[in-house]
């Protein structure tokens, strides 16, 4: 044969050329309608053809490309693992090693593959039939053939990485087309499954981890997730803008299955007929690349199953949603297959405008097998937007299990969806309308609520305040930064948020956000298990910053509702402008007390006829009394001049108010007005005690304490230096 080394190099070059040729031919044949006549198709390069792949042809093109490359890998491996002893040793035991079995099967593959068949046809008859010229294994010809086989196998083994890298580079060009990001979530998951199988087979073929192509696949997943996440944000904002904040029926709530969030049976990957015979070890992630050293037989098990992509091409119905459901219909105990429910959930990509629920592919069915995540009271608090949000987050949780390489980005997407929902409820029901008062009341938001809103604004400013959006570098692929480059939808101005909804809707909003938080808290352990140990801080940040602060948000909404319904924002100025500089204390109280009692009576009447539960009525009554206490303190802190008799009049007003409120409500109101009595008594403190008093009473704002000090200093004739030093110390300690 002459130059055996040269022959081996030419054979390897032939396989490399076949990768280029076959992948190009696949696209030319598949895109016959899109490209036009044969002359035009011949002028297009492979990259040009990839750009023109439509969404409808993406999966067939990908499967055909994978099938062709896998066929070449089988032929290449068959030549690399060919052993002449396996053919001549007819007395070989049937209990041979798995390596011999793989090689024997590989030699059969060579005869079936057209590449190997061409090679066999071109060999001389004396070479193809060594028995014609010699009868012993020690003959020179046999030894020459044995040495030539070893050299070819060594050359092929050394160059298999080149074949793999060329094949993956061609696939990378195909995966860069726009159709990959625009395909449906179901089709994308099928493509991801096929590419994962191909990577595992390739790692077994090469004997090393395909880190570059895995990174390419991760980039493809990230790009798809960005598009998918943007669609879900648009859908959520659409639902929120059309939300009526009315409680949904129990039947509507029961169609939602949250198996992905709660971990009650969400499948990691939906099996198909074509992948059911794949080596089980590879689905556990045991790649051949994890073993060091030379692995000659890692690909042998893949030869036994045939070409997995050929089956999928021949049985195209198995890749359709109906085909997959039919295949999985025999799985389970007679109820709906978990894969059926899961695939139907993933297909629900749109929101129905009438019901505000994700659309279903088939008629609605009541989910009976996965209702363990619902607890008493949960269903009664559902609204259309909360159902939509939970459905979206459940879909994200399912995808976190399927797309493990990008599950952190998916979790961050869940984080942002809940943040947008959280912020919308705050803007709609927690915004304080201060237009009725010349001077605003002190901010009653808790520190945790402020921190949560700050975090949401920082991460989702592009969606909640589009006019302030900043566009970061396009090089980043994370969800949090990439969505800044997308078009955003306008939000409603805060001025219209207090005329659209009544008490019942406001209470429903507070209840529904609390419901979502309860469901998320039950999914906390499951989400920890899905993410790796290195990413647990992301989960804790989400729960610590947002989910755990939902009670603060609900309380703020109820307090805001109480303040709105009481209509007492203007009373601090009325209290401050009352006559407090009196010389004698009479038996009559100030008129604002009667006005406050009248407002509270109307407030209780509104609660009685508001269509809310008794529990919420009692809660809002308590918040109403506390709102009156806040108004009293704020008004008294704005008083400019007051005598000792005026301070006694303040105590009289407070006692009359307590007695009047006690006739309206059954609970003891005096403890809730203790904050006012303490503030009034501080008028009699020595001038050296005010700094310590301010530090020990953080419930009063800095402006309220400063107002008290200014009043006392004016009426008791403090030195200017003493007053300024006291105020300076109070402000420094605040």
Automatic annotation (TrEMBL):
Syndetin C-terminal domain segment(s): 501-731
Sequence ranges assigned to domain Vacuolar protein sorting-associated protein 54 N-terminal in this UniProt record: 1-82
BP term (GO), one: retrograde transport, endosome to Golgi
Coiled coil feature spans: none
Region spans: Disordered: 90-139
One Gene Ontology molecular-function label: SNARE binding
Residue intervals passing through the bilayer: none
Biased composition, class Polar residues, residue ranges: 90-110, 123-137
InterPro entries recorded: Syndetin_C, VPS50, VPS54_N
Protein name as annotated: Syndetin C-terminal domain-containing protein
